[in-house]
Amino acid sequence: MNRLLEEGDIAQNVALKDKDIIIVPRSPIGNWNRFIQDLLPTFQLLTMPLTAAQEILLIRDLNRRLK
Question: Is residue 57 assigned to a domain?
Fold first, then answer.
């Protein structure tokens, strides 16, 4: 495959047939995105109390300003 990409060697060129499956490996950025996607729910769960507390403080501040 490297020879095909780097030198244009088509000796390994294979004609595809109906219902053939092509597997394309994930890129490093795809691996990173998957890693972050897997971690995100945990981080959201851990920061949920902080987010709720921040919203409560914001609502209190807005109520004080409106009075």
Answer: yes
